[in-house]
């Protein structure tokens, strides 16, 4: 008999004008106000990827490759094999490919600016933090790589990546790119040597792998606040549900429910589900409206829905805790405190009002339901995949679990209440 | 069908219910009469399984409900003292919600709701929000909700407080009809003795946690058989006149209110003479002197020395 409870909560919510306005109209109005007053001032605070990458070559690719070609000429190999090797070598220019066809590709050229620097400048550049990242190409890189790729001789040489610590996002992207790059350069040339396919398609593959990374969109102030306000105002579902439940207790309606042989726990589960569904509905209305009015669209709808669902369940859990506290203390205080103080603090920590610069607050903020939800929504908005939001989803899951347990413990057992 | 044995409830300091014994037989209307704070609601809460007694037992068809309330709850309707309704739902929506949590199936529920709306006379207003209802209408719906699952036993806790006389009469008639036509057993709690006197076959009078009298109407009034009530109205009631009467050896109890005096005196005695004499002595102008047949109010006064309504 949980469904009637859920249906009834929806009815109560719709009839409750003031709350209805607070939950649905207020956040959108706030986004409007922000959009037209401070407008783009805020965009500065929003992470946009704009990285300059320095490449320091301790080697000359052309000289390397010429040297190798010459060596091969002198080898006691059949002429046919020699020609094939040299032909392969002509297409094999790993540094040029990295610079021009990968980092300089259409997809990535807006993200990364590539600058050549002299090897002697590297130390100074590291200190100055002038570049987002520095890639060092070791001596005889192309020579060694070709040798190990074509003939399986010697070690595979490694590029050295130096990154400026403050740029996590870029670091991750670059690491991914280089990993794929090195992997592909090695394996595809082995295949090439065996005469399967040619090098071009494998380059496409590299780009394919990194294209999702390159799709990263900057977050506009409008989408920032659409998300910020939505994850903040969805928290009010918890205080509202707490208040409704308190009224049920105060007006003895709860006793009527018990008299119908509905157990306390069934009622409790009804409350969690009703709150979660209400939260989800609220998010859908807010985000749906934002698609139409603010043009905030989601590249991956399923991932978006997953975050919204999980956040809603967390809100349901918090609602049950507020309900439990109201029952335990026979007052509406917990609802008031949660609605008036805690939501505001959470919203601040989570960055709903403005992007937080402090690392510590950011860290704490990511453990609030709204903060975790917001980070996950932003990543999704920017085109990141599931891998990038696993942490946030885990935080939401863990919060739900802990809060539900607390709520169950706080909820008065039979005989504990009068 | 229901038996209450030595029921006690202690809230921190207050002993709200102190050793209550009572029983209900099928088909009866039983009254539980007592002033505010007597412990009526606490008793009702315990026997409807909502709060656990500090000690004592409640048995429904010989089975204790304290640990296993399910069976009682199936057949019990409770009309709480408070308006236990959703103000922001309509009358009909309230009935629907409570009907559904009682697991009444859809078609049957629709039919049942019509029937209940008929009984409580709220057909026309069924689609208005409860918060727009008058006090009387809320009280009626409060009763209606308790009727949906066809209970065989109903506890009503002061179902008529704070409403107009018309609604009150309607409710009293409804209670009588439910008992007559559907043979529902009713425990009716009130601090209005007229209601209890009008409705009930048997009556328990409760005060300060105790049952101080029990029995049929006549049995209870018999407590007063040795006394009669004399009601006096005068132009002005003087202190020395009250003194004179109070000191009279035959006056058992005296209450004065504005221009009215109530005296309890032995039945056989002709007290008229004394009233007139003493009035003359103190220059009191009498307007009327009446001998009253005893009411439950008088019984209560006799038993406790206090008026039922303070
Ligand atoms: N939950 C409670 N906590 C403490 N005291 C209570 C509680 N409920 C009732 N009481 C006290 O118990 C006594 C009986 O109250 P109640 O049963 O409501 O009387 P009635 O219904 O006859 O007016 C009163 O003194 C009241 O203050
Ligand atoms: Mg009461």
Automatic annotation (TrEMBL), chain A:
One of its GO terms (molecular function) is ABC-type transporter activity. GO terms for cellular component: membrane. Residues 22-409 form the ABC-2 type transporter transmembrane domain. It comes from the Bacteria. It is a multi-pass membrane protein. The chain crosses the membrane at residues 20-38, 224-247, 268-295, 301-325, 337-354, 393-411. It is found in: Membrane. It holds the Pfam family ABC2_membrane_3. Keywords: Membrane, Transmembrane, Transmembrane helix. This is ABC transporter permease subunit. It comes from Salinibacillus xinjiangensis. The lineage of its organism: Bacteria, Bacillati, Bacillota, Bacilli, Bacillales.
TrEMBL record, chain B:
It is found in: Cell membrane. Residues 2-233 form the ABC transporter domain. One of its GO terms (biological process) is daunorubicin transport. It comes from the Bacteria. PROSITE patterns: ABC_TRANSPORTER_1, ABC_TRANSPORTER_2. Gene3D superfamilies: P-loop containing nucleotide triphosphate hydrolases (3.40.50.300). GO terms for molecular function: ATP binding; ATP hydrolysis activity. InterPro entries: AAA+_ATPase (IPR003593), ABC_transporter-like_ATP-bd (IPR003439), ABC_transporter-like_CS (IPR017871), DrrA (IPR005894), P-loop_NTPase (IPR027417). It is a peripheral membrane protein. Keywords: ATP-binding, Nucleotide-binding. One of its GO terms (cellular component) is plasma membrane. Belongs to the ABC transporter superfamily. Drug exporter-1 (DrugE1) (TC 3.A.1.105) family. This is ATP-binding cassette domain-containing protein. It comes from Salinibacillus xinjiangensis.
